[in-house]
Amino acid sequence: MFMHASLDGFAAGPKGEMDWIHVDEEIFDYAGERTNSADTALYGRVTFEMMQAYWPTAADKPNASKHDIEHSTWYNKVAKVILSKTLKEEDFSNTTIISDNIAENINKLKLQPGKDIIIFGSPSAAHTLMSADLIDDFWLFVNPVIIGEGIPVFKNANRTPLKLIASTAFSSGVVCLHYQK
Fold this sequence. Notes:
Elements: E1 2-6, E2 10-12, H1 25-35, E3 38-44, H2 45-54, H3 66-77, E4 79-83, E5 95-98, H4 102-111, E6 116-119, H5 123-131, E7 137-143, E8 151-152, E9 163-169, E10 175-180
Helix pairs in contact: 1-3
């Protein structure tokens, strides 16, 4: 799970606001190393629709940044899995929609050969996966802000002992904590 968090444990504001999240080239470079180790991206419907609206053509824009080019290239080649009960199969390239038997379907995915599966943001999807104990690694980008209320990072999670693998502090004050089950 790859998620930004406020210091008080929220993934987004009460209406899904993410304007408090800090990203810059230093964080993009760090995150890029992680995404390059994955060949499957898992999203909830809301996050997928946000990603799909931007990333397929981000590299084609006249002033595309290094990050836009790299992430767009990655996004267009990885398999995408969307957890959604409402999104219907459309002509999305290299995309699978899982709407039921989530634990069974995710476990089948995890057994397939290949690189890592990475979940970006998608708090509702992460909550579903946490309740089924399907997340093996937690990469939390803790932002130096208290937002007071919103969508929690952890909800419906079972008690899960974690081991701190690494912590990385960025010049912006954001700290990435990598925990593993």
